[in-house]
Amino acid sequence: MQDLIPKTQSESFFTKNTVLYTGISLLVLSAGLFVLFQVLKGNTEQSTAELNTVLLGGKTSQERELERSVLGYQKRIEYFSSFLKSQDDTLPFFAFLEARTHPSVFFNDARLNVQENRMVLSGQSTDFGSLGEQIASFEGQQELRNVKLTDVSLSKGQVLFTMELTFAP
Amino acid sequence: MKSPFVVIGIFALAVIVLLLWTWPAYQEFSLARNALNAAETETQNREAYFAKLGSLEKELQQYPTELSHLDSAFPSAPNLPSLYDTLQDIAASSGLIVTAVSSNVAEDSSPKEVEVNVTADGAYEGLKEFLRRVQQSSRAMNVTSLEFATPREGTRFEFHIHISAYSL
C-alpha cells in the first residue's frame, strides 16, 4: 500500500557517507604511513650502515700519525714536568762533605743513594777524639737528618769506622 | 556499498593495518633513527677529536726548539747506543774514562726507565764534573746512586755510577 504522504527514509549511522569515507581515509592513511615508515627505516639503516663502515674502518694512517705525534708530545711534557720536580742534585752531598770533614778524618769509601738521601761512608781517623768531633760537627748541621755510627774498630793505631748519613730531603 | 558490514569491515581493516603494520613499522623506524643518532654522535665526536688534535699539532709546530728539546729528553725508544755515546762524551769531557757500561730497560714503567750502570776511572774533580754535566744533559737523566773508594795506588778512582734515563 502506498502512503499518501511518503516518509523520509532516515539513513542509519553506518550507512552515512561521512562514516564510510572516514573509515576509508583511515585505512588509506594507515597504509600510507606504513609505506612511509618502511622507506624512512630503509634510508636510516643505510645511513647508519655507511657511518658504521667509516667508524669500524678505524683510523687512517694520517690520523694515526697525528695522534701519535700530539699524544707523544703531551706525554713528553708531562714527563718533563715531573722529571724537573723530582730531579736529584748529587753535588750538594759532596759540597757538604768537603766543607765539614775534620782534618784528622779520612774517608776512603763512599756509597751514595740519591733517592734515599743516604750516604754510607767508611774511613779512618787518627784518634777517637777526632772521630767524636767529626760526628758532633755533622750532628749540628741542618742539612742532615740523622748521623749513625754503625761500626768502629781500632787497627794498627788507626780508628776505622763506618757511618751512615741521612740528609734532609 | 553502504551496508553496515562494509563500513564495519573497512574500520576493522583500518584498525588492523594501524595496529599490526603501521605501529610496528613506526617502532622499527624509531629504533633505526636512534641507532643513526648514536652513530652520528660517535662520528661527530671522532671528527671533533681529530680536529682538536690538528689544532694542537699546529700550535705545537710554533715551538720547534722546545719540541726538539723534548724529543732529546724523552726519545721515542730507549736508543741505547745513542745513550751510551752521550755518557761516553760526558765522561770524556769531564776527564773520566768509561771502562764498562751496562743497562736494563724497564718496559712496564711509564716513562720507560733505562737503568744504566757506568764504571769510570778518573779523579774526584772529574766525578763532580761528570755529575754536573749529566744533570745538564739534553737527555733526561738522574744519577740514582754511586760508589767509589780511595785508590790503592795513584790518584785515579774507580767510580760505579747508576743512572736512570727515560724514553716514551
Notes on the protein architecture:
Chain A: The chain crosses the membrane at residues 20-40. Chain A: This is PilN domain-containing protein. Chain A: Keywords: Membrane, Transmembrane, Transmembrane helix. Chain A: It comes from Candidatus Wildermuthbacteria bacterium RIFCSPLOWO2_01_FULL_48_16. Chain B: One of its GO terms (biological process) is type IV pilus assembly. The complex is a heterodimer of chains A (169) and B (168). Helices cover 52% and strands 23% of the residues of chain A. By secondary structure, chain A is of the alpha+beta class. Chain A has 3 domains: 17-56; 60-87; 91-167, General secretion pathway protein M, EpsM (Gyrase A, domain 2), CATH 3.30.1360. Chain A has a 4-stranded antiparallel β-sheet. The longest helix of chain A has 40 residues, at 17-56. Chain A is rod-shaped. The mean pLDDT of chain A is 88. Chain B has 168 residues and is of the alpha+beta class. Chain B folds into 2 domains: 1-62; 72-167, Alpha-Beta Plaits. Chain B has 4 helices and 4 strands. Chain B has helices at residues 4-60, 64-73, 80-94, 124-136; strands at residues 97-106, 112-122, 141-149, 157-167. In chain B, strands 1-2-4-3 form a 4-stranded antiparallel β-sheet. In chain B, a hairpin with a 7-residue loop joins strand 3 and strand 4 (157-167). The radius of gyration of chain B is 36 Å and the shape is rod-shaped. At the A-B interface, helix 1, helix 2 and strand 1 of A face helix 1, helix 2, helix 4 and strand 3 of B.
